What does this fold into?
Amino acid sequence: MHDIVIRGGTVVDGSGAPARAADVAIDGGVITAVGTDIGPGTREVDATGLLVTPGFVDVHTHYDAQATWDPFLTPSSWHGVTTVVMGNCGVGFAPAAPDRHEWLIELMEGVEDIPGTALTEGIEWGWETFPEYLDALDQRQYAIDLGAQIPHGALRAYVMGDRGAHNEPATAADIAAMADLVAEGLRAGALGFSTSRTSLHKSKSGELVPGSYAEADELLGIAEAMASVGHGVFEFAPTHHNLLSEWQWMYDLANKTGRTVSFNFSQVDTEPDLWRDVLAKLDEARADDVPIVGQVHGRTVGLLMCLEGSVNPLMFHPAWGRIVDLPLAEQVAALRSGPIRDEFLTLPEGDGGLFEKAALGGLAKSWAVADGDIDYEPHPDDSLAAVSARTGVSLTELAIDQLISADGHGMLYSPFMNYAYGDLSFNYEAMRNPSTRFGLADAGAHCRVICDGGTPTFMLTHWTRDRHRGPQLDLEYVIHRQTRQTAEMYGLSDRGLLQPGYRADVNVIDYDALTFGPPRMAYDLPGGAPRLVQKALGYRHTFVAGVETVVDDEFTGELPGRLLRGPR
It folds into this structure.
């Protein structure tokens, strides 16, 4: 008698093998059999007409603070994710000298748009070193498993003080001290190290993440410490249009140390075809057996703009100051008719063209979020610019009417990466390349402008079922890429497959009906701070280590998840 048998489903096991009808047996939190002749279970789960997959492994999240207060780690756990890796892009909260707490909060708030009030009220400080941070996490229970990386920003400030915080060059002694702490963190269970080299990542006060200008000797010194321990991914966020200028140190580092280098890989409007050259470099590295991978997103990277969010086009108009502090209902009333609306519909004088450039320029490549969902591959003919050209209604008026719709909860979507061609053809080609890995969902971050934590669900709905503006991807391929392959990338060899001996992290999904709920602003962070959320509909069951955590898209309250320490 098995503990649990998931019976009668269509199994996509994470290996890339074709889907097949099979039952899945679970005993003691481990998969013990997959086939058609499995005996009875103490509990039988009817999966007839449903899809059975491994739990998803999301390697690019920012739960570094949220993990200290939220046992459910939403939104990831709403979307079939059973394992996450956090500490990306060089930002996090350990190591942390006692006098650096507020500074680290402002760094995270600026880079990842996580409200500072939530971080201040929510973080339960009780550590200084990275091993102590892991110990603090290890005392908690979660709905899913989580692993952590050592962030360069926190590390540099801890070792070098203000010199490190202000991106001054590291001395040989600084590099040695950072390398020792990275080795210590990896031995304690960190899964990798992360850094940022992009001008987009700035603190609340406008300072770049520490390490943004780090020389090759600093990066190599840290990577050599990783090599001495024998595990860890070297993850970084580049300035995308300058990515090729970073290539030599990436290649040398990966070649000399054997550590996998994973970089955020996106298409930018200013260099729309640069990605082809990047893929060629990745192909060359793979041919040389040099472990470099591009981490690619399945969506556009863009802004969800609404009156409740941190960005909307009206903010660039002088009239915004007259309504910014009003309750939402009063903002809507003022924008619906009257002198305030008229003022917004008039180009301001004396702003140096700011509104015209920052707001109207962005609105030309924006789309209304219709019917409570977001179209991440919208047609150019449906953009605000196209609608304005057809109707004669100004961009500003179209934007106002959309923002005040649904009692002020209306949204606009404005992609700024991965959409230079007006479709997701870049994503399609990049995701099919064997030198890329799925990631960049940024779950837990960009709380008031993005809700991409649902990307694992989007990969199934859009890419394997609903896409109509280009070719789709095979279901088996997508499941493999966001289960077994992402798990292996971080040395998590015990998960990501529905095969005997592997951890029983399992999703049972109503694939045909799988969809998203409407995006909304929730005020559920500590202190009532806001975040954009979008739940999934269609996860009939999720099991973590054989324990059921989700039934019909709702939590059971069970918390079998734990901190992951090192390769497994």
